[in-house]
Inverse folding.
């Protein structure tokens, strides 16, 4: 157990739907990152929050949004889902805002049918 | 901006042999270079990292070397074991101190 908790572990939904993925960072970590990993692909950085504020944005689609709450947990919202959104979504946390040791969760596997 | 290239994409070695994975980066200001291991069905996990003021770092069977002049760094695994089979990712920092990731290397250890 890495200390980063992601729910749900698996999610199957239909095209056009909306889903929310949740992440609780490791205790003491202020920064949360979201990554997308499609089948046999690398890690695509989506967005980073630090202590409730958006710090960096990667290749995140306009259909996707995220936020970090006062208790530091984060949610990634995916809307108007398409088949190509099927992927593993990882959350990672770190103590600092800049690049340092990231602790990843086990991921949420999203399947869009 | 920063670009990180990782080679090879797949590496198959005999158990007990050594494995080397190489990454090159483009931003000479990069100063932090971690390596992550992703086992099947799990999230990536940091296995070793190096900062730009160090040329080499070792941790048991794993070592990382950094050549700042050539802008490349490598992961070396000696005496490979079945549990080393995984996907390995390198990364380097960009000017905003964000990690830019390589595409990953699938390491296969043959018995």
């Amino acid at each position: 157990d890495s200390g980063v908790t992601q729910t749900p572990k698996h999610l199957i939904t239909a095209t056009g739907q909306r889903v929310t993925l949740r992440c609780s960072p490791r205790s003491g970590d202020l920064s949360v990152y979201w990554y997308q990993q499609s089948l046999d692909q690398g890690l695509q950085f989506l967005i980073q929050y630090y202590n409730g504020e958006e710090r960096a944005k990667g290749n995140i689609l306009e259909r996707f949004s995220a936020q970090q709450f006062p208790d530091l947990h984060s949610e990634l919202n995916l809307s108007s889902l398409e088949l190509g959104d099927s992927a593993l979504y990882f959350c990672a946390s770190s103590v600092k805002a800049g690049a340092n040791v990231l602790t990843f969760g086990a991921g949420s596997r999203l399947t869009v049918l | 901006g920063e670009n990180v290239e990782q080679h090879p994409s797949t590496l198959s070695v005999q158990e007990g042999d050594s494995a080397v994975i190489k990454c090159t980066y483009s931003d000479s200001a990069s100063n932090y270079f971690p390596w992550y291991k992703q086992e099947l069905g799990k999230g990536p996990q940091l296995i070793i990292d190096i900062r730009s003021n160090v040329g080499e770092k070792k941790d048991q069977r794993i070592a990382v070397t950094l050549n700042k002049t050539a802008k490349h760094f490598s992961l070396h695994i000696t005496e490979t074991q079945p549990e080393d089979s995984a996907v390995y990712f390198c990364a380097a920092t960009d000017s905003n101190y964000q990690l830019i990731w390589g595409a990953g290397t699938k390491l296969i250890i043959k018995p």
Chain B has a mean pLDDT of 95. The longest strand of chain B covers residues 86-93. Chain B touches chain A at residues 32, 34, 36, 41-46, 49, 89, 91, 93, 96-99, 101-104 (CB under 8 Å). Residues 59 and 103 of chain B are 24 Å apart (CA to CA).
